[in-house]
Prior knowledge:
By secondary structure, the chain is of the alpha+beta class. It is 54% helix and 7% strand. The protein contains 24 helices and nine strands. The protein has a four-stranded mixed sheet. A three-stranded antiparallel sheet has the order 1-3-2, with no helix packed on it. Strands 6-7 form a two-stranded antiparallel sheet. Helix 15 crosses helix 18 (359-374), helix 16 crosses helix 20 (391-403) and helix 22 (446-455) packs antiparallel against helix 23 (459-465). It is globular, with a radius of gyration of 30 Å.
Amino acid sequence: xxxxxxxxxxxxxxxxxANLSPKLIALFQEDEVTLEQMQALTCAQTHEHQxxxxxxxxxxxxxxxxxxxxxxxxxxxxxxxxxLYQFIGVEEYEKRGGSLTPELFGEDIFIHNHALMLQLFExxxxxLIDNLKAQGWSWIHLxxxxxxxxxxxxxxxxxxxxxxTKEQLDQLAELEANKEGIQSAQNELEDxxxxxxxxxxxxxxxxxxxxxxxxxxxxxxxYFTEEVMALAGGFVYIxxxxxxxxxxxxxxxxxxxxxxxxxxSQDTAESANELVSxxxxxxxxxxxxxxxxxxxxxxxxxxxxxxxxxxxxxxxTLAYPLVKQFFYPRTAxxxxxxxxxxxxxxxxxxxxxxxxxxxxxQELAKLHDEWVKRLPKKEKDLFAHLQTLEPLDILALxxxxxxxxxxxxxxxxxxxPLKELAKTVNLDMxxxxxxxxxxxxxxxxxxxxxxxxxxxxxxxxxxxxxxxKKAEAVAIAEKALADSGWLPKVLRS
Length: 493
């Protein structure tokens, strides 16, 4: 049966390779594309998509894994590289309606619905989270893994230690004795430095199990007072394929109060000195980094359309980075165009899945199709053809190419790389974008919707959404503001 399945998969592989774009097959025959790259390109479902990927990135000789990522997108993950996916399990994911794609040239599986995986993760972790909160912890954050990025915004509170019971001391003594025995056995091996030998690995696994037992006893003696737990929290995460917890973390806003609580007891007074009062923070952005990028994507594509119509600006846009490079090499570069020109269509689509609905995007697509009709079908005829064009036609074509490299994607509202260029062409985003449920309101908090209503001068809107559920508030806000001309700060020029 196994051989039969393998044979069936081999046939599928042959069919997928045979169905690739004829243009790519010709390049493969000329040794310009490797077999592994061709295998990766089979992830794209159409010849147009396959050719587009290779035309934009082929000159880099991209790694097959990079090609897969370009095709599948950031929203698709692989089971082999994800502890979360392995923890939940493919069967449970499929049972709940999740879609997946087995890797044709490999043994991995592509997961398409990461949001569903996160939902299943939350459901599995909820009993443990509820139990920890019932113990008195103020908050519990759920993380796929516990690393510096998760814990760095918080401060760790030193735990108190209960005296060990006689039973625990006896257990520790026995475990330490066993540990010494295993270490002696490792040293007596024929080649004790051969960490890859099967016998060494068996002993190493026993050592790890003993260390886990020792750590578990030590952790069981740690405790926090009820007053500290009421102001602190911790994390639930995946470790070695199981749920684990790490507790005793303080949020910055609770540091001052926690210090007072710790200083009120002799047992914890010393711990208070280890908590550092946080410095004053800059005001928090009203929008998430993901939404900010989506808005900048809207602004970028609108700006591309404006600049393509202003050839003087387009040529200046193209020339600026080169002039800067050779005449002002030591100055900082904040201009949104980088050379060589790298297409931004994939990046814009990943930042904003709705970008193809943009008026500016549709106009640029029409212009692209017009140039496709005018240019020769074969690349070898292109240079001679360009020499036959009138100067104004060359400028128009160069303008179109230039704007393809404009990249204004930023996750920070305070840094707008499109500012100078937008000002030059008098970009008015009211012509291209309006605040709808999908483009804006679903991605912001209720407080931000109220702030938008106030900023737009619609005081009655704030009263209408007060006390409403999020979905109702979003629908009301969309109806009231879609044609109001209001723009978030990111889209204002």
